Amino acid sequence: MGKLALAAKVTHVPSMYLSELPGKNFGCRQSAIDGHKEISRRCRELGVDTIIVFDTHWLVNSAYHINCADHFEGIYTSNELPHFIRDMEYNYDGNSELGRMIGEEARKLGVRAQSHEIPSLTLEYATLVPMRYMNSDKHFKVISISAFCTSHSFEDSRKLGEAVLTAIEKYDGTVAVLASGSLSHRFIDDQRAEEGMNSYTREFDEQMDKRVVKLWREGRFDEFCKMLPEYADYCYGEGHMHDTVMLLGMLGWDKYAEGVEILTDLFPSSGTGQLNAIFPLPKYITEKKAVNA
Fold it and tell me: Can you tell me the distance from the alpha carbon of 195 to that of 201, in angstroms, rounded to the nearest whole number?
């Protein structure tokens, strides 16, 4: 009997990598890095062996895809922002067994999901950036799931989240799940990129993000799930916020009512809204684990 040990929404802004390098941006994202390291610390305390990432930089036009190769290794340069992330080395083990189980459970729910063990299918930076700060010692196995979904329904993404939980519960191990994506995601106009690295593009987006954080802190997910489709549209949610839909699908969707713990306060980055937040597990998940243990 496996268990879900931790669930979180996390930032993956490439300026975290810049923050490590000498120069004018050194230390600019330390609070975000610290949030990732705290999540890693908690995962280790909880005995997590595998981290699943809903990756909003893995764009897919057909079906849902699960990258669950035995091993991932390479040198990554972002094709979107090569002046931010360049020659970043990575080396992680995967979890093919659990990845296959997720695909099977998703298909049972009518979701067009495929699991892949293809050596040349590389990881995207919404997985690589969090793993850089959480998993530099290869402590955790990694599975990446596509969450930049261009032709997919929220209903199917919600069901995929449900399938992830079912697979975890059938798996012999302990798992953490990360929704890796921003809140609002309207990139700042290119001519203002330098001045806007630490600001929002629009006041509307900032006010909406603050409202969302308030709802999350207060556990008001019945309200949030109702507004989520319009929020994702009007505020340009990253990957249309399918990562968040998957996360909440896993946690119970609109019946989820836990107060979220903010590890890294809401901050702007190149026009977008970012944070790190822990979603406490509800009793209907933790008590089910205890009964079935």
Answer: 11
Q: Say how many domains are in the chain.
A: 1
With 0-12 / 13-18 / 19 or more C-beta atoms within 10 angstroms meaning exposed / middle / buried, residue 121 is: middle
Residue 144 lies in a domain: yes
Tell me which amino acid residue 120 is. Answer: S
Tell me the per-residue pLDDT of 184-214, one tens digit each, with 9 for 90 and over.
999 999 999 888 899 999 999 999 999 999 9
Q: Across the strands, what pairs with 264? A: 276
Amino acid at site 239: G
Q: Helices 283-292 and 154-170 meet at what angle, rounded to 10?
A: 30
| 124 Cβ neighbours under 8 A, 6+ residues apart | 55, 57, 58, 144
> Among candidates 95, 90, 108, 100, which has minimal Cα distance to 69?
95
In a domain, 178, yes or no: yes
> 104 Cβ partners below 8 Å, 6+ apart?
115, 167
The CATH number given to whatever domain includes residue 12 is 3.40.830.10
Full-model pTM: 0.97
CA distance 134 to 46: 14
Cβ-in-10-Å burial (0-12, 13-18, 19+) of 14 comes to: buried
Structure tokens given for 239: 């990957």
CA 4 to chain centre: 15
Q: Is residue 119 part of a domain?
A: yes
Q: What are the φ and ψ backbone dihedral angles of 122, each rounded to 5 degrees?
A: -90, 170
Q: What is the mean pLDDT of residues 276-284?
A: 98
237-261 per-position pLDDT tens digit: 999 999 999 999 999 999 999 999 9
Say if residue 231's pLDDT is above 50: yes
Run of H or E including 292: helix 283-292
